Every structure is written in structure tokens, then in C-alpha cells.
């Protein structure tokens, strides 16, 4: 049973107002009241909807105000208060909702929603991702359609083509479509359940993202193909090709490389043979740009430093690997380099650069798996390899005591990886280290 002293069923006045935490976690069917006639209705299938009981010109009625989490408790309270004020002044908020419901297309709803919401995101990257995912995948199929007519099948037409291959993107896209449609409901442009809702809705048709992700690892480059692939890449020109080379040298994520700015770099002196701490350079990625939310240091080998020093710089652009107009390179531009390399091989009748397990063409993110496999087969300590990939190591307690990021030792490991890329040693040779092969 729900706690926190919150009254359910048909009570008109709650003992205690709802809390944001309660709204997020409540699962038991019922009606949970807040104030201003506002209550949260939880159905048996788990769906939730904000409803306001209100008297309009002497007639008692109920207004739907959307569903959590897209419509937060604070948003629902604000709309409920506005509706009550309008009704007290003789207005009809229900009629207003009916009036504006006609003619709102999904494309218009996206523009209106983003105009109001994007300012809440502090991170410029998140603002661009919100707009780009909706524009690239949802608007082409849903854009001209009235939000009042969008169905579950319409949403599935958007999601199904990318659910298996781009699961994380598709999952985020679903949530963003849900938010846009929830806004449209609160604004009076549609009624009823949200067709993009996951629980008890799309969850009955699409496989869970976690299960798809586990069975759909990003295609990696076979260790035996590493040096040939690297030689092929080295012959290609362009900023995206250089970014892909640097990504491979450092085993970094695409977003980390594409967002890299010159002020994150200390190129040091690669020719200095003094202590390991002064060999090569260091790339320090701030916590705000890391997936795990923690700053990360990347040791730069002599080869990586040479690549960076040879790059042109664009006045007015902070990015190391900049797009033609000075902004950040898109993820698609780096992926396109690998697709072109694969297409060139297939054109000559060769299989190309395929993942040895799933036989799919390798992709940029899969290069991290290739590096991790190499490090394991070469006998490098697990923790050191995981730190190189900016993964969390052990429990929170273990991380609290493990303060070292093994920068110097990782520098030597990345130098060995650079030799593998250049074909200087057998990438699949397993050496004995500490008695373990």
C-alpha cells in the first residue's frame, strides 16, 4: 500500500500533498490526490495519467493533463492552477483545449515543445541530440500527421527499423516522442493514452532494450585484420579519417574524440626520453564529457602527438577535429569512413573487415572491443585495460581506495598498441605475464 500519508480512492482533500518521488515509484492502482482537484490515476496495467476535477460554469468535469514522467508533478500543478483560475473567472479551459486541438501536426509539436524545453538543458550536446534524433527519425514519418491521430502503429513505424541495430538511440527516441506527445496532450492538442508510452504499451511489442543490447554488441575488427585495416585507413584523407585514426590509437569513444578541444591537450615533448611522465602528451577529458561522469586522462603516444601536431587549426573553432563549418564532427561522418572502406573491399570481391563472430562489418565503437581483446590476450592487467576504456573498476569502496589511474603504465600499453597498428608485431600473440598466459 502507498505510504507517506497520501490518501487514495475518492478523497477530495489529501492529508499530504504528493511528492515527486512518490509519483515516480507508485505502482498500485488507484487515485492519488494532490490539490486544486489534481490527482494521479494509476491503472491496473501500470499506466499513469494526471487528471483534474474541476467545475466549469456550474458543471463538474474531468480534464486529462498528460502522463508522468513526461509531465512532471510540478508541470501538472501549474496547469491545474491555471485551469482553476480560468474557470473562476468564467472561462472554459475544456473548450479552450478543444479549440486548439485541431491542426497541430507532430512537426509543429516538436518545434513548440523544444522551444520551451531545450533551455533547461545545460549541456549543448544534449540539446543537439534531442533535436537531431527527432528530426532524423521521427519527423520524416510523423511530421505531417496530426498529433491527435498518432497511434501506436505510427510510433512503431519509427522505432522498429532501428530498434535492433541502434537500440540506445531508438530507446532515447521513444522517450522523446513520448515527451512531445505528452506536451501536446497537456496543451490540449490530443487526448487519451500516449502511444509512445513504454510500460504496458510498446513493451508488449518491442524487446527490452537491455536484452537487445546484450545480444547485439557493436561489430568489432578482427585482430588478424588490424594492421591491414590501419594501412587502408592511413591512405585516406579528410578530418573524419584523422579522427578515426586518433580514436583507434586511444581506444576512446567517438563522442569523446569529436568533442575534444585544444585546451584539453598537453602535447608535452614526445622526443624527451626522460621519465615516463614526460614522454608524449596527455589528453584530459573533463567529467562533463565523460559517460561515467568522471574526468579521464588519456596518455598520448608519440604517434598520437604527431597526428595532432599535423592537424590544421580553424580560427574561431575550439575543436581539434572540426566540421567544415567549424562545429563538432558528426558521429555519422566517422562511421561513414569505415563504411566506405568496407564498400571498397566488397567492390573488389573481398569480404572486407568483418566481426569474426557475427560477420557484420566493423564499426568505430567496435574498435574498443578489438583493443580490449588484444590487451587481454597480451596479458595486460584487467584493471589497467578497463581504465584505458574509462570503465568503472570494482565496487564504490574499491574505487575509493584505487586512486591511481596507472597513467605511466597505460602509456607503455598504448605504445605497444600503436606498434600493432603499424604491423610491428603479431596482434594475436599471447605472452606470459606473471605466470598467466
UniProtKB/TrEMBL annotation:
InterPro entries to which the protein is assigned, alphabetical: CB, DNA_brk_join_enz, Integrase-like_cat_sf, Integrase_catalytic, Integrase_DNA-bd_sf, Integrase_DNA_bind_dom, Integrase_recombinase_N, Phage_int_M
Domain of life: Bacteria
MF (Gene Ontology): DNA binding
Keywords noted in UniProt: DNA integration, DNA recombination, DNA-binding
Annotated Core-binding (CB) domain residues: 104-185
Gene Ontology biological process terms from the UniProt entry: DNA integration; DNA recombination
Matching Pfam families: Arm-DNA-bind_3 (PF13356), Phage_int_M (PF22022), Phage_integrase (PF00589)
Species annotation: Jannaschia seohaensis
Boundaries of every Tyr recombinase domain copy: 216-414
Protein name: Integrase
Family, as annotated: Belongs to the 'phage' integrase family.
